[in-house]
Amino acid sequence: MTESLARVPWYPLVFPLFYGALAVFGLLMARHLRVFSAARPVRPFSGVPRRAAALVRYALVQTRMFRDLRVGVMHYAIFAAFVLLSVGVANAVSGGLVEAVLAAPFDGAPWAAVLLGRNLAALAALAALAYALVRRLVVRPARLTLSRSGILILLLIGGIVAAELGALSYEAARYGPLPGAILTNAAGSALAGVDPRLLEALFAVHWWAHVVLVAVFLVWLPTTKHLHVVTSFFNVYLRKLEPRGALPAMDLEAADATYGLRTLGDLAWKDVLDGFTCTECGRCQDACPAHATGKPLNPKELVMGIRHLADAAERGLPVIPGSPDVRARGGALDDGPAAAAMAIPLVPGAISEEAVWDCVTCGACVEACPVLIEHVDKIVGIRRNLVLEESRFPPELAPAFRAMESAQNPWGQPRSTRLDWTKGLPFDVPTAASVAAAGELDRLDVLYWVGCAAAFDERNRRVARAFATCLHAAGVRFAVLGQEEACTGDPARRMGNEYVFQLLAAQNIETLRRYGPPRIVTACPHCFNTIASEYPQLGGAFEVIHHSAFLAGLLDEGRLAALAGPEGPTARRITFHDACYLARYSGVVRAPREVLGAVPGLELAEMALRGRQSFCCGAGGGRMWMEESRGTRISAERARQALATGADAVAVGCPFCMTMLGDGLAADPGNEAGVTTLDLAEILAPVAVAGPGAPRRGRELPMLP
Ligand code: SF4
Ligand code: SF4
User: So what's the pLDDT on residue 511?
Assistant: First the structure.
């Protein structure tokens, strides 16, 4: 035992106290683990380097917390104090082993550094805790859940920190300064002259208060939201490594599987871990466009709901985790107490049915969450169950489902009109079939994936014409699939209809394999995400690029140039709306701005919510085909944000954003100037000319008669 610990009266009592508390902590954690073992098995363990990098970035450096600097500093001060004070606790409960080891090398410098760190971190933590209490009790941001346990645990942590500072101060006053503990040594010297017996008593009281409060914290922790101090490291490490926009693969042939998520038992154990990791910070709630516009959906309540269901299930689970009735076949739960305990329905237990359909799958919640909780996969999982097993979905989706299945596009338009957008163009747009028939597929630079919106929606047809004009100006050899193109299945998948998605995806993959394009370019971020991130789940791996990145590349290579002059854009001040599936899901943020930056005379006026923090237009997740009867329209809110920039036009890079924002702008009573939407290609095309790097125009690709 070290000299310092020898001064503590009744010191040996620390062992039963601390290790008893640790045992209770272990038992309560084991109780949670029983739910994990009864949940669906998953193995998110591969990709160790990427997981380790995420651990450093999100759990240790806590980059997402620092998006709000003050809150980031506050949280980091408490985190640092937690870590450094743990060293002191570890020393106390190991009979001084830590001090013995760290005080030996370099004349005790490492232990002195620990004491200095504990001093500084404790002081910073006290200030941070005071700020946290003021925020909760006085400022009261709407996103924070105000609970008695939340306040009590802050006070408990404050008590631990204050007791540590007190114990070190009285120890310094009674026995002399401790190496490195500059703050408490200074406090100790200010107490010089106080009766030594009183100092000894105060030291003992504070030392024991510190240890007792740590024991209380340990026993209480597993039942509070502060469990995230333990679970967040695991949650971050076990994060989803698949592309952000790829929904979980689904085996429609699995004989004993439940389609989608119906009960708590259908969730993977990682989903349950998400529930136990939620800090109730409400960042997802704040970022959610559905919640912001008055819909019942609240992503925070979904995650908290999962935790509450897991808490409820714990009572009915077998004592021994992994007992035979649990996941015997790795698929559905067998009959037995575990199956009964886990059979709590997610709807309405964790989320109401109407809220399930409010989600635009924009991913803003996932992007905002500091502990990397995945909300979208769960919501779509619940939709899958409602659609595939119960045929329960908003009635307006039925025509879209039927149209996608029969006409291969959600508008239900005949495929014979897929090339109508090319009418009136001063150049030919060849199809891949005609190029293949002429044996010239190897001359193709790129296959232009037009998408259903640009093929059938009159407004978006103008975008297709503008983009083709840019390609033609740059001398790009491109072809389209024409009547062979089908909807990628993105809306069907996000509306929960995995059957229709896989039908369409299989057809498209077969078509694309037949032509083997070197690259696919598309102006639709939804098509881009689905082909690039989701078709690999079904065996289709293709290189895909969004038209903004393709145009930026052509401009950069000098194959395309933008002329200044009377043909220039009529709008001078432009704002750019980042589509969720482009910026947040696919990380394409710079390219659209590079395209706009290349057009002479344009001034970019950015919105506050942009890039990965963009605000949805309201069309994603199949919401394009649903009524928006509750709250204000999401598109109206985004139009208001765009108009606040004072821009003459809103540039977009997505056909759905084109439609939704166009409607939102048109309906806004403050839009007296008639601000409207323009695709990037529409802004560039009128001034696009062949650049010095453009190839000399050779023989055109062949057209079918
Ligand atoms: S994906 Fe978007 S709409 Fe859905 S819950 Fe998350 S933030 Fe809300
Ligand atoms: S899910 Fe994430 S962002 Fe939402 S409240 Fe929980 S920790 Fe915060």
Answer: 98
